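hey so u asked for the seq, here:
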Amino acid sequence: MTADARFWNRIAPRYAKSKIRDEAAYQYTLERTRSYLTAGDHALEIGCGTGSTAIALSDAVGRITATDLSDTMLDIGRDRAAQAGTDNIRFEQCSDDGLPAGPFDAVMAFNLLHLVPDLDAALSSVAERLPSGKLFISKTPCLGEARGSFKYWMFLTLIPLMRLVGQAPSNVRFLSVAELEGAVEQAGFEIVETGNYPASTPGRYLVARRR
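ran it, structure tokens below
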């Protein structure tokens, strides 16, 4: 088991009880995502956590394969899906470089890309699972957009300290919007929608079509 898997397993019960920081931005993200999904789709969610987003979107698609590093997160997700009466989600443990083979009609990654150790490899893996014309839908905190501000300095200082005491994962990338979008395009995608939900520090919502 990797250090990151152990970290997410350890914090999973607390994570499951935490409230969404910006409910309006989250609901708008769901609304925009729904507009790109269809009833027959087989969607893949990478880094599904405790399954809340997969469950919320389950009625918009035919089925969802929801993956995460953490077995504990996935167990919570399975329990939540059962309680919600949702039967079209398959929860599966895997890393971002060992994804299910596909192909998929859509791949989703919410609050994940700033945490992967190799962004280019992760995006390449996503592209391999999407036929031409299919969609990659993501939302990513772009901490790099705060460069030069007190908030950016605070992130740079606190995250390593939190990591030392086991309160942060091993990899946190300070991506800018330009870096994120450039990496997505380089992986073989055409960006069809972007927006910041919330606006500060931007949670960059991005929809990209496989070329």
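Helices lie at 3-17, 23-34, 52-57, 71-84, 119-128, 150-164, 177-186. Strands lie at 42-46, 63-68, 89-93, 106-110, 135-141, 189-196, 203-210.
lmk if thats what u needed
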